[in-house]
Amino acid sequence: MDKEKQIQEVLNRGVENIYPSRQELEKILRSGKKLKLYCGYDPTATRLHIGNAITLRKLAQFQKLGHKVIMLIGDFTGMIGDPTDKTEARKKMTRDQVLKNSKNYQSQAAKILDFKGSNPAKILYNSDWNDKLTFIDLIELASNFTVGQMLVRDMFQERIKKDKPIYLHEFLYPLAQAYDSVAMNVDLEVGGNDQTFNML
Q1: pLDDT per residue as tens digits for the range 78-127
Q2: In angstroms, rounded to a whole number, what is the distance separating the alpha carbons of residues 45 and 57?
Q3: Residue 10 CA from chain centroid, whole number
């Protein structure tokens, strides 16, 4: 497939939204600049699911264009539990549980991503930087967001209507996910529509 077709595939196939804009990303892709991008996977189960194949394929499309891709294992965020689309708090998981769950993720992802070629995909774990954060670091990070911004989320509005609890650690999940991008110094994040709030 020629480069133009590859660029169009990256921009359009299986893509609903691009932030800040499709035009901006297209301009960067045509410029020849090599991007560093990632997608995160919280190991809440022992196997990747079919929905993960969509984001893995998108990473692979970027990889074929020569961009640096990272498969991020959310071993830290997996312990918090993503509140997205949940009518109640997720059951918290231990570090041992998330590490055990993630054990086979690379071999499963290797059916789509190339971890050995001339431009190998990397696997990183977000505990590598999140474990080093101090409480004051967390306060500094949290000071960039308001409770109102968090409460905008539909599932939190539903819980309020049904008088169900919203726990503070659930507010910290999008902060931890946002910090992943900063810690890895990436240009772009790939994710499903359900992750839009966490990614912005």
Answers
A1: 888 766 666 677 788 899 999 999 999 999 999 999 999 999 999 999 99
A2: 20
A3: 17
Tell me the percentage of the chain whose pLDDT exceeds 70. 92
Predicted confidence (pLDDT) per residue in 69-82, tens digit: 999 999 998 888 76
CA distances, 170 to each of 58, 101, 127, 165 (Å): 28, 21, 17, 11
Sheet with strand 188-189: strands edge to edge:
122-125, 68-73, 36-41, 188-189
If one counts every other C-beta atom within 10 angstroms of the C-beta of residue 88, the result is 14
Task: Give the global pTM.
Answer: 0.87
Between CA 175 and CA 169 the distance in angstroms is 10
List, in order of start, the domains of the chain with CATH numbers: 1-33 (no CATH), 34-194 (3.40.50.620)
Q: Give the 3-state secondary structure of residue 41.
A: strand
d(CA 2, CA 194): 32
